[in-house]
């Protein structure tokens, strides 16, 4: 018996297609059994029957034959293309139709659901990456003694990494393969995330978060491109929308783990004074788990057969499609069903200059340099092709929509937060839930500041302070021969005051400063009141002994569980929007879903004029997230459907990078409005949403379009 996998590949110069195996003129051959059997090896199923006597068992029940269903679907796709296009089908369209027919034969079942879970975990890792900094920062800033500028830079650098990663990994996925690039990207994210949890210095921590962002940046472009190429047309919109549920699950996972880990300071450990592993570092470490799970699952998943066909790897593509077919039908209780594909048309192999240098040509390093430069050239060439005549309009429209979707989040965030919060949150454009933990904390601080006590011209002499001082301002006071021993100072400021013959020992301070004070004959022993906390002060005969180094803040302060609860509610609020978009994506279409969601979100922006209490913020968060998620789902679905296989991941990565760039630009353009006015940002947010919604209505509908 001949080897069934050794199929010849004949190239035809006449039509620009190669023929894989032999078949009919449609280029999609079927046969009664594959691989060929011996004459005496007939199946038990057909034993005792003549071919002329066989009859479709559903004929008497009025059930249409599967071939009739397929023919009806082909006719519907031809009608969607129009009469002119149906008569002159392009080579690319013919390949797309053929691949659609193969996926229909393979069915939808266990294989797609297994891949759904694995890729969902990768998408979940992307979501967790956006939440981890916002949830860990309130505790990390205490441990690392971060200034406002450093906190803003931390959020910005992570986001820059994700932007760069989306562009790079999207381009590479169209050249090297979806699975391979996703594995490398997730591995980088896992390693960098693990190392960042142990980084003690701010510089190392921000460096590893940058690398982690570059790695996870490739998740979204590759995941959607990868999964869409295993879905037939009537399942694509629904299941890509269901896939978005994992982004919600990532937010819930991050919120619950932060809630359960960070407040428990005893979960950390220390190794001397050089390595301190606090509970927030445990949380950062746990956030790597979804990426690790996705990485393990991907080792059992195959490459996209649609990509392999594009790279002329016909045998590998056939084997994977057969695996999909057998896995699905075996799970449905029909293991006897045979994969009947005997030929697959493929596009003519283009001279892409991505050649393999012979081992005798130059050194290994020289060969690597040439391959790398060639790969960069191909990626940039693919990016430039997105602005070719046939794709220019779609690319510009999609770029405008992605830009406005990200831009509107930044405009809203700046309404109520401080500058560093604004920069950090805008950089987590995916949802307002990333901002709300800091927003709640901001409101709590405002309430805390409103209860501040102010003392004027008090004179205290020979007094022993052994109790904590909190939320106080002392102006023009005089402290003579006083002792401040074993106490905590939280949010305390001394202005224009005199300290003479005083003694400070074992002091822990939080946000405590001395401004324009005169300090004479005073000793500071074992305190964290280092000289930077004395602003424009005059010191005479003053000594600092055994000053504590670093940031020694009050680690016993309890974290407000409301911060984590708000993040959880914000993530859970998208559940109704996700369900509705999944159920109706293929019914009402992608364009109406995007446009309608963005226009409704524009109306929701006016709720910002309502009072900014904590309850109002939470209600607004849930409403906005629930409405706007449908637009995100529709944008991601239509992006993979507008572009051909050779450019799909590249286009998705570029548009995803544009989205992140919009958030970064918004953070700088509107920073001047922070704390000044709310009217202008709200109006700009509404305009951005309206423009994005109107642009979406100009897009072509793709729900009955086979993937090119």
Automatic annotation (TrEMBL):
Compartments, as annotated in UniProt: Cytoplasmic vesicle, Secretory vesicle, Synaptic vesicle membrane
Entry-linked InterPro entries: LD_SV2, MFS, MFS_dom, MFS_sugar_transport-like, MFS_trans_sf, Sugar_transporter_CS, SV2
GO molecular function, one term: transmembrane transporter activity
Domain Major facilitator superfamily (MFS) profile: 115-703
Region of interest: Disordered: 1-64
Family assignment from sequence similarity: Belongs to the major facilitator superfamily.
Spans through the membrane: 115-140, 152-169, 181-199, 205-227, 239-262, 282-301, 396-422, 561-584, 591-612, 618-640, 652-673, 679-697
One GO location term (cellular component): synaptic vesicle membrane
Origin: domain of life: Eukaryota
Name of this protein: Major facilitator superfamily (MFS) profile domain-containing protein
Keyword terms of this UniProt record: Cytoplasmic vesicle, Glycoprotein, Membrane, Neurotransmitter transport, Phosphoprotein, Synapse, Transmembrane, Transmembrane helix, Transport
Example GO biological process: chemical synaptic transmission
Topology versus the membrane: Multi-pass membrane protein
């Amino acid at each position: 018996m001949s080897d069934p996998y050794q199929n010849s590949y004949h190239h035809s110069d006449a039509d620009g297609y190669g023929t894989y195996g032999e078949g009919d003129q449609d280029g999609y051959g079927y046969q009664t059994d594959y691989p060929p059997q011996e004459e005496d090896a007939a199946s038990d199923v057909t034993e005792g029957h003549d071919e002329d006597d066989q009859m479709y068992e559903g004929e008497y029940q009025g059930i249409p034959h599967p071939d009739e269903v397929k023919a009806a679907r082909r006719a519907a796709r031809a009608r969607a293309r129009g009469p002119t296009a149906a008569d002159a089908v392009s080579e690319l369209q013919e390949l797309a139709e053929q691949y659609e027919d193969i996926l229909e034969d393979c069915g939808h079942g266990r294989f797609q659901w297994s891949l759904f879970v694995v890729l969902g975990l990768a998408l979940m890792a992307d979501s967790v990456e956006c939440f981890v900094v916002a949830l860990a920062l309130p505790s990390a800033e205490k441990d690392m003694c971060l200034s406002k500028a450093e906190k803003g830079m931390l959020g910005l650098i992570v986001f820059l990494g994700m932007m760069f990663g989306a562009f790079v990994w999207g381009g590479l996925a169209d050249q090297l393969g979806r699975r391979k690039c996703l594995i490398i990207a997730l591995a980088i994210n896992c390693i960098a995330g693990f190392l960042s949890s142990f980084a003690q210095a701010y510089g190392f921590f921000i460096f590893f978060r940058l690398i982690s962002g570059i790695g996870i940046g490739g998740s979204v472009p590759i995941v959607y491109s990868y999964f869409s190429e295993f879905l037939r047309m009537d399942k694509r919109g629904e299941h890509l929308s269901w896939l978005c549920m994992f982004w919600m699950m990532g937010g819930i996972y991050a919120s619950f783990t932060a809630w359960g880990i960070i407040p428990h300071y005893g979960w950390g450990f220390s190794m001397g004074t050089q390595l301190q592993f606090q509970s927030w570092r445990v949380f950062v470490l746990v956030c790597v788990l979804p990426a690790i799970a996705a990485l393990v699952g991907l080792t059992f998943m195959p490459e996209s057969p649609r990509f392999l066909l594009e790279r002329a790897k016909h045998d590998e593509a056939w084997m994977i499609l057969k695996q999909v077919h057998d896995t699905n039908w075996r799970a449905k209780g029909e293991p006897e069903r045979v994969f009947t594909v005997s030929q697959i048309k493929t596009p003519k192999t283009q001279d892409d200059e991505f050649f393999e240098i012979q081992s005798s040509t130059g050194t290994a390093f020289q060969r690597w340099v040439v391959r790398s430069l060639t790969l960069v050239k191909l990626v940039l060439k693919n990016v430039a092709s997105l602005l070719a005549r046939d794709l220019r309009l779609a690319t510009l429209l999609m770029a405008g929509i992605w830009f406005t979707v990200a831009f509107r989040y930044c405009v809203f965030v700046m309404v109520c937060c401080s500058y560093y919060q604004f920069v950090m949150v805008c950089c987590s454009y995916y949802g307002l839930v990333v901002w709300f933990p800091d927003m709640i904390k901001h409101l709590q601080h405002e309430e805390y500041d409103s209860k501040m006590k102010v003392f004027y011209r008090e004179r205290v002499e020979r007094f022993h302070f052994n109790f904590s001082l909190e939320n106080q301002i002392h102006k023009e006071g005089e402290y003579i021969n006083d002792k401040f021993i074993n106490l905590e100072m939280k949010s305390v400021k001394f202005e224009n005051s005199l300290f003479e013959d005083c003694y400070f020992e074992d002091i822990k301070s939080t946000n405590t400063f001395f401004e324009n004070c005169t300090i004479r004959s005073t000793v500071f022993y074992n305190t964290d009141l280092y000289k930077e906390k004395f602003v424009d002060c005059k010191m005479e005969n003053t000594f600092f002994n055994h000053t504590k180094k670093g940031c020694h803040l009050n680690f016993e302060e309890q974290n407000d569980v409301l911060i984590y609860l708000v993040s959880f509610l914000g993530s859970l609020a998208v559940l109704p929007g996700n369900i509705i978009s999944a159920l109706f994506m293929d019914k009402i279409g992608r364009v109406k879903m995007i446009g309608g969601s963005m226009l409704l979100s524009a109306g929701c922006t006016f709720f910002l004029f309502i009072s900014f209490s904590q309850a109002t913020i939470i209600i607004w968060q849930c409403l906005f997230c629930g409405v706007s998620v449908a637009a995100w789902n529709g944008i991601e679905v239509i992006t993979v459907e507008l572009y051909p296989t050779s450019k799909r991941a590249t286009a998705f990565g570029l548009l995803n990078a544009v989205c992140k760039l919009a958030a970064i630009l918004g953070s700088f353009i509107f920073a001047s409005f922070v704390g000044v006015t709310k009217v202008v940002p709200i109006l700009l947010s509404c305009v951005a949403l309206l423009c994005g919604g109107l642009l979406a209505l100009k897009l072509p509908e793709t729900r009955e379009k086979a993937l090119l």
